[in-house]
Amino acid sequence: MDFSSGRSKPTHNVISNRSLKFINYPLLFIVLILLFTGLVAMYSASAIYAENKGLGSFFYARRQGLWIIMGLFFAAFTARADLEKMRPYIKPAFAVTALLLLITLFMPPVAHVRRWIPLGFMKLQMSEFAKLAVILYVADYFDRNMSAIQADWTTLRKPFIAVSVILGFIYLEPDLGTPALLFTVMMFMFAAAGIKLRYVFAPFAAGILAVGLAILHTPYRLARLTSYLSPFEHASGAGYQLAQSLLAVGSGGWFGKGLGASKLKLLYLPEAHTDFIFPIFAEETGLAGGLLVVGLFTALLVKGTRIACNAPSLFTSLAAFGLTLTVTLQAFFNLSMAIGLIPTKGIPLPFFSYGGSSVMVTLIMMGVVLNISAHRGNSR
Predict the structure, then answer these.
(1) How large is the angle between the packed helices 157-171 and 126-151, nearest 10 degrees?
(2) CA angle at residue 133 from 128 to 139, to 5 degrees?
(3) Which sequence spans correspond to the domains of the chain?
(4) Which of 16, 107, 200, 303 has its CA at a distance of 20 to 30 angstroms from the CA of residue 172?
(5) φ, ψ for residue 117, nearest 5 deg
(6) Which residues on neighbouring strands pair with residue 304, listed in sequence order?
């Protein structure tokens, strides 16, 4: 879909006619439902784990609640901000993000990975903030350079190189899931901007090849792939987490065992309040609860895409589309991982998984999309 087609305004223009009374309230309602459902699910999944560590059953839920409050504050700010005045700061923010990602590589490792900068009250995960920086940078670049891109496709090398630096730093943490997610979203944004398919397929194929080589040359990733193909045959080793996840989802039945009644969260499924929170929720609420989560993320995708199609400029179109797709595609990856459709990877479920950086960045993204929806003429 070419979001830039059929628009009478010039490619680069000033965003105007914005009023909060035109904000997309159905999208806001979807976000609030996801937040509430996610917090309930996170408490249920984390209570026993927290007590086992001597922290109290509400420890993780309380911290998640505080981060949600902070995230809502930042979302409210971005929903009311003048995006046009913020655009000059996108490139500096992108550069600072790259610098902090580089600094992250020198931080003390946690579980053999370097993904966080310790701040005392929380651990800052810069790869989460990189999602916001990359999407806004690509959207801004296309809006400012679309004429040059149409005249000379080699102009695309600049955003490719800039984003590749960011993705390279994240990969070295090591983290393969986030670079794969961001690269996929960037390719969709290229296609949405009207870039000819041959200029999208070539880098996309190269990206798939790079992911394949990264898996084949890393023993633990190769073990994950092998266990994904036959998880129960490797249930005592690399396939343990996926096998337990499938057992949790499958044992939920139609309507689940009831909130708080999960058996697999009794330390059978490791760190169930983070990346594998959905299997616990599905065990307790059944197929009905699982379909509710899928339906909410699908509705978010539909609303966000409509906002992108009706946005007043190419920048806001691509920003709304990219941010919406980042959240929903990440959810798709997480849900697919939980039910064995794709190999296991450390990708959190937006609004559900425990983590301050994740929930705050997700809410900031939604704040930007709501900001874009507030422009006169946008559909509900």
Answers:
(1) 160
(2) 135
(3) 20-373
(4) 200
(5) -105, 115
(6) none
